[in-house]
């Protein structure tokens, strides 16, 4: 065994209990995105559309949560669920794409956190703008690498901090909902019910909010990503459902009660985090400060959780020989440092890209959601595949989750599908590196077809950007 191979043999870390797994799921889901919901929804829909959107998203994501719960129990041999399910169901190359897409979505999602926190501070420091100025990117970059240093100390320490931060960040969100209900104006709520003139048809209103709902529900699969750390496999599924149910009502409430405080046209023009502006309108300046502090705490916890998950996906994929072997090195504290470096570097790249975006926060949010859809679709389809001949209830849940995820890809629109291809296609170089290290043929005939589709999509996306058909 070489010295490099020896470094991969880290001693087992302390196993995670059900409360810890559930807290990590909640910590992943209750991120900075929830603080942006009032403005994002008001830009797309009124109260009626929001209620329908949450009903669709809640039902669809609950089906996905049940899928992850079922797969954790039925296939306990598969670790890092989202990636492993795609590989087991549809082959190594699509499994690789699932791992890469999920990892990339986590890294891009982390960019939204830094953009939003800089936008928050930008309310008192104009040089930070909406989180997309050069100074904002520089300060965000410092934060990226400080967290890298923290997480490098070990998963156990990071998870302990995450438990504390999760509790701290949920409090201001619940307080916001309670205060908003107290100050709610029924006449304003009624005026916002049908939506403003710019919102369009009810179907378009619902469709326009879908990626935002995906973003705030990302993390529902978090327990399956950490399945190798769980004390009991059954806890993975339980944590998934408990985490989802714990936050769904909070997410919907933040959006709906905001419509009772301000006209949706005014909410749509608020700077992010829009929850701060809504509460300021109701209770005065202290409301903005209160929410802003809560957002900063939220970013700390969400960034911590998502960086851990991003590194974990790369690490497990490398352990299964689907990523280059340098990514399966880990420290004695069970931290996959090379995977952590890659995650931080990709977030750094997208931080720089926000300088060229028309709306840095919404672009990063939508791209995060779009990149996650392929991994989710493959996991749901795998549940359908293994469900034939089994219980009808489980098969129906898997089918509904698959249909919902396919609808989300449609709702994402051509722009984000093409941008996703631009990101996915070059990733194949990592797949090629792994195959060469193993002395294997680079692609099977079916994999060549998948490669051709991904490259064609990437080329079309680049052309579309160059000709101005789509923009960042």
Task: Please tell me about this protein's structure.
By secondary structure, the chain is an all-alpha fold. Helices cover 74% and strands 0% of the residues. The chain contains 20 helices and no strands. The longest helix has 35 residues, at 285-319. The termini are far apart.
Radius of gyration: 21 Å
Total number of beta strands = 0
How confident is the prediction overall: mean pLDDT? 79
Low-confidence stretches: 1-13
Distance between the termini: 47 Å
Give the number of helices: 20
Strand content: under 5%
Main beta sheet strand tally, sense and closure: none
Helix coverage percent: over 70%
- H/E order of the elements? HHHHHHHHHHHHHHHHHHHH
Shape: globular
Structural class by secondary-structure content: mainly alpha
